[in-house]
Amino acid sequence: MKKSVLFGTMAAAAVVAGAAGAGTLEDVIARGELNCGSNAGLAGFSAPDANGVYQGFDVAFCRAIAAAVLGDPMKVKVIPLSSETRFTALAAGEVDMLARTSTWTYSRDNDLKLDFVGVNYYDGQGFMVKKSLGVSSAKELDGATVCIQTGTTTELNLADYFKSNGMTYEPVPLKDNAEAEQQYTAGACDVYTTDASGLAATRATFADASEHVLLPEIISKEPLALVVRHGDNQWADIVKWTFNALLTAEELGITSTNVDEMAAAPGVNPEINRLLGTEGELGAMMGLSKDWAVKAIKAGGNYGEIFEANIGASTSIGLARGLNALWTQGGLQYSPPFR
Amino acid sequence: MSTAVDAPGSNFRLGMLIYDTRYRSLTIQVVFLALLIAFFVWLVDNTIHNLSLKGKDFDFGFLFVRAGYDINQTLVEYTNDSTHGRALVVGLLNTLFLAFLCCVLATIIGLIAGVLRLSKNWIVSRLMAIYIETVRNVPVVLWIVLVNAIMSISMPEPKEFRGENPSASMILFDSVAVTNRGVYLPEPLFEHGMGSLQLGYFSVSLNLLAILAVIIGSVWGYRRIQASATKVQHVTGVRPVTWWKSVLIITVPIVALKFALGFHLGYPELKGFNFNGGLQARNSLIAMWIALSVYSATYIAENVRAGVMAISRGQTEAALALGLRSGLALRLVVLPQALRLIVPPLISQYLSITKNTSLAIAVGYMDLRSTLGGITMNQTGREMESMLLLMGIYLTISLIISALMNVYNKSIALKER
Q1: Among candidates B43, B68, B153 on the partner chain, residue whose Cβ is nearest the Cβ of A156
Q2: Of A214-228, A275-289, B146-160, which gets the smallest average pLDDT?
Q3: ipTM, 2 decimals?
Q4: Of B280, B272, B184, which is closest to residue A133 (Cα–Cα)?
């Protein structure tokens, strides 16, 4: 018995060691599936639908990348990760990339040896309280009990914010959004704090959503980004430029419905031609097929379509584009040129 | 015979290591040991190699960096300006505090349940059987989450204590508030306290030290009185009356100290969002304490039952035949013998309670696993260092508990003279 366990461990260790060695792109192609780390359940961003298939804003980027690399947006294995385990899972090779509302920070980028390749949502940390509490500003929260997801940047921002405003608070650390939601609705804390988008998503799932308000203060910058491991530049480029392709598609008016038509023959706009592979060899430069961007756009549409379908004003989450509008419309989403 | 002894020296061949039964088992053991060592060397080498491949070094320097996060339950002074190392200590103390509370409560419940399960009363013994079998056959983490959920959902919110006609009120003469954020208890305060003593990184309350010193002194005095009374009894055959001396030596010093320090209770009071003042036992602590104790008590109950049942019926009968009442027979004859059987498995129960406190992350109790192995690890990205440190600390705690309990076990073991 002891021996068989030992050999099992050896075999497993050998497999892991082997996997870490090769390039991520080759691994994904050999596996025929993209392992994408995301939230276990955050409405609008990543949550299983009625059929148990993960859907949402973050998952849509996983699908676009799977489509670009493997040609099929459904060849994604969404691996739900807690905020505590996500980076370890990525570093250990358990997932190929993270699309899990992860904030891009200096120390994560450098000390954790990660690469943040594209900010898919510009966010900031906010506060949600019950209307009945009668609080209209975060400055009135002195002495409040605050529910918070442990192991996140929000934990540090919160400490800094209350300290710099000379206020005290009582933290209730919780391990994920579901736990926090339960404690907040039970009234075990006065305030729930996390990224404003997450608050909106959580509030949308409440039966009495109108009884809860988001306070106006946004106390931090939270650029939520797609993350890959440090050191595999080819894979980082694939994730980065697939994301950029979706932004450029919105800028150029390419949608999931007209992409086939536009890709059928070279048109008058050379940038569209280059992006859709009817001119030049942009795909081959990254080790992908000519029509990688076409497949990526067909998966869930361009950036704007993905936003509107999952978290936009027409959904129950109801987030405005705000900072996430294209740069041409006063937002921050800006893709380098495809040239 | 002599030829057989001489044989290895004179004509030993290499093949004999495998074919000769005298050497075979030794050969197999040596080969296995060599393989095992080679495996661990490879494992460590592979880890170091892979870490360096990722550009990560192995460094405990992060322990001296500002932590930046807050901890709600702190037994020693801590702010978010303190270091990760200090957060580790806070977590460690929280772990030990919880483990201590759980061991005490689990032992009490376990002892009672174990004895009751042996009761001749059918209903009582059946009820205990049901308690033991249901509780211990469900994973403990579910009990923890359940108790936490009950606390946070069914208890009143602090705001329900407010207003002219509050829907909730404090209990025990308005001194204790049970809310869904925890239980607020009166706290001991000292009007003219003696301040605290700075011991390197930590400050120790002199008031607490004074109280401990007085209690130890009183107990020592009490035992001296008893010892001298026994001496007199041995000499004269009559035990002198000592109860009033005992009462005096136990009560007078502590009461005197109480007045000297200006002791009074600070009651929790509703201010702003929460109760202020008083001691707060948070939901997470209560959930961990109750769930873990009730769960572990089932195992202790079975240990107790096994220990008592292992003592032969003849011992009880002999004690009864000598005229001892059944209570005395249990206390003087059965239990001392049963304890020898109960204590060794009890040690392992205490160890597993201590290790199970690491489930605290499930309800957000800030123990060692949640501070060092949770937030610190996550913010600094030092998984290897944190996990090794965590394992080392748990190992040390377990070995210390084990050593202490073994000393106790020796003291109650059968003395063979």
Answers
A1: B68
A2: B146-160
A3: 0.72
A4: B272
